Amino acid sequence: MKPLIFALAALGLALLHSQCSPDKAGAADAPGGKKLVVMIAGSPSHGPGQHEHNAGILLLKKCLEQGAGTQVEIKHHLNGGWPPADELAKADTVVIYADGGGRHPALQEDRLAQLDKEMKRGCGFATIHYAVEPTIEKGQKEFLDWMGGCFEINWSVNPHWQAEFKEFPAHPVASGVKPFGTLDEWYFFMRFREGMKGVTPILSSAAPESTMSRPDGHHSGNPHVRASVARGDKQHVAWASENAGGGRGFGFTGGHFHQGWANGDQRKLVLNAILWTAKAEVPAAGVASTVTDEDMKANLDLKPGQGLPEKAKKAK
What we know:
single chain; alpha/beta; two-stranded antiparallel sheet
């Protein structure tokens, strides 16, 4: 009897350790102990050089492999493709760069429920640009749970403006990032969790009065945001969150213009964030990467006026 009792006790201790280990979020690590990053690009949208979801995801993937390839394995899905359930079950973080609102890929079919299952075990969640916007009726509650904030119509706004980022918090996502500024469609006046619970603003800048030049509308203005801009409040356009389920979230409202990814500090911040949400170690100097002109032109969607070389068009 004693050998059987000892064997059962050992098995119980092993199971307890596997459930309580702080390095596990409920998913099996990718091969070699790497974190699994699942990246989802939405379908083509907008004009040339704008909302380049496919090219943007592939560029960020290349840069993440370049600067942190020893820590992560990356699976990517283009043109609105959705990962299979077994892949999501192993993901350490899910990154979405796509159109939002009713077209948001996470709001289709039963995908919110699929993601919620993974978030509850501690999977990370990051969205880029329009993908920070669910709908109030569907997705807003989940997005607040998963990343601490989101775009809300008739509250948040989406003007184009030159934002200058001069100060950063002492947070891993900001590791190695130096002051920078870019012209982008920086959404701001997000709907955040009450009291900003668990939320750390990462990029903040006071928006100029020119951002309020449009009449009030779903995405353009309202009395609340106008008063905030008039006061000179700093507007948070990127943020990180610690979530109740143990997961981590990140929202980044820039990324309208593909050219923005040529800015090394913008790129570094987002690469850092992807690592952080996956619970991988962010280097003290941030994720290093370089891109060439050829990298920036690679994988652009076929759009009228895109200016792609003829041979590139044929190759696609």
